[in-house]
Structure formats: C-alpha cells, structure tokens
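#struct-help
A.M.: can someone run this one for me? Single chain, 335 residues.
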Amino acid sequence: MADVIVTSLSQQLGDSMSSDTAEILAYLKANLPTKSQTNFIEYAYKVLKAKEGKKKSIKIDYRNVKRFFQDFFKDENIENIKKTDIERLHTKISLENGAVQANRIYSLVHSIFESAVCDELIQFNPCRGIKKNVETPRAQYLDSKNLARFFIATSLLPTYWKNYFFLLIYTGARGGNVRAMKWECIDFASNIWTIPANEAKGGKKIEVMLTKETLICLQEMQDINKGSEFVFPAKSKSGHMQEPKKIWAKIKDDAGLQTYCMHDLRATLATWQDELGSDISVISKTLGHADAKTTKRYIRNKNKKELSAVLESVGKVREHFSKFALDNSDWVRGD
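D.P.: on it. Structure tokens below:
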C-alpha cells in the first residue's frame, strides 16, 4: 500500500513538487516493497462480471470496453493510469464518435475506477474533475412533407420490413421492444400489447394501445409468420430481428431523410400528438415514459377513461399519418 501512496502523491503534486520532494519520492518508490500491478482491461471485465444480472445495459458495457478501451489502454495497469490519460480518451471519442458517446464512455470508465478505489487498488479516481461534454437534445421529427416521404418509401419494402417501421411510428415504442415483440404479449381482445418489465427501459411494464393500423400490420405478420414466438422472427442468436440499419439507410436514401435516425420516429408520434392538442400525460402514457424530464409525468392509473384518451389521441395522429401517405403520393425522392 505504501508504494501506492507514493504514486498517488506524485500524481497529485505533478509539476508543482520541488526537486527535493521529487528525489525523496523517487527514493521511496525505488526502495519500498511493491504491490502487484492490476491490468486495467482484466479488472474492467471483472467489474462488469460482478454486475451481470443487476444492470440492464451490461452487454453494451462489455462491447464498449472492447471497442474503446482494448487498444487505448492495451497492457496498462490500473495504478499507472492518470487523469491526463482519461482526458485524452474523452477528447478522442468526442471527436470520432460524438459528444454523447464520449460522455457515456466517461461514465463507464469512472465507475470502473470507483470500484478500484473501493478495492483499495488506488487511492483516488483519476476521472474526478474531468468535465463532460454539453449535450444538445435532439429535436427532430418528421413534418408533414417528410412524413409523406417516409410512408411512400416504407410502403415499397417487403412486408416484414414495412410492418416493422410502421409499428415503430404507429406505437411510438422503442425499436428494441418492437423487434423483440412476442405474440403472447399481445391481447387482441382488449387491443393491448404489454412490454414486460424486464424488457422495458424503466424496469416497469408498459401497455401499448393497438389501433386499427397496428392491428393490420400484426395481421399481415400472422399471415407470414411460421409458428415463431416472435412477431419478427429471424435466424439470429436471439431468435428475432436485429436492428435493420441497412434497411433504414435505404428508407433514408429513398425518402431523402439523411439526417434522421430511427428513434426520431418515436419523437414524431409524440410531436404530432402535441400538435393535435393531446395532454402531456396522454403523450407520456403513449410512450411509456416514467421520467419527468421526458414527458413531465408518467400517469400510472390504468383506468378506462385514461386508456380511452390514449387511444383517441393516437387515433387522431394516425388518421393524419394516413392522410399524408395518401394525399402526397407524388412526393418521391427528387420531386
């Protein structure tokens, strides 16, 4: 432990230490019994392993350790990593992958070093004092013209892909939930799709109202489904569709929506609900939000009046969606 203290003092004093102090610390470091070093990458995986089953995004964390830490830290020991190293990593990711991604990776590496402090591998967290990037919330949604372009381009896709993207915009659900949708979670008698708590982002089940348009999509999927438990089955490890990045790229190219991402379809439903006068609580219910920062308040009362309001609100929006798709069929790319 003594050698760790000497190293910590050296890091904290930095260029401000006198030559005499530097000599004393160098002597102590050279003559004190050393503690075995801990490889950062190995320790990072150990920390993640301990969090399996407790953190929903653990798989993403594993991928990020491999993607961002493997080459950057290489064979570096956790005791030797300094604040300047973390700052270089944060700047590198900010430039190459964007401000938001850099902040997520910063939070991950910060948590790993916090665990190292608790395990007494280091005296202080080198991430402390590093400022995160300022994040600007996305505000994109499909206006009437781009909405028509989206429907036209999507309608030309094979049924499997067409219905996936239609369900994204008709339900406002997150892509991962739609891709993993199971038939057993759909109650056709009450027209409700239940997203289980263990699959919902907030850890609480979400009930999604199914209107005429969504039921048409599901009926078409039933007609082509070959007995799978999933609405969108696929030959993948999970058994269901994976994120269709290439198909989305085709839609963007065909519809001229290059600056949009799939998650903007979710924002589109919410924005049009707001445009048509829906109360914020109804929008919150539609999207399954539980955070006041996203849609003010999440209404938990599941009474008939509330569900009816959601159904009416979403129904109005989808009537407009259908109108845009039909009345503007001449809006194709290049026109």
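A.M.: thanks! The chain has a mean pLDDT of 79.
D.P.: also worth noting: Residues 169 and 265 are 5 Å apart (CA to CA).
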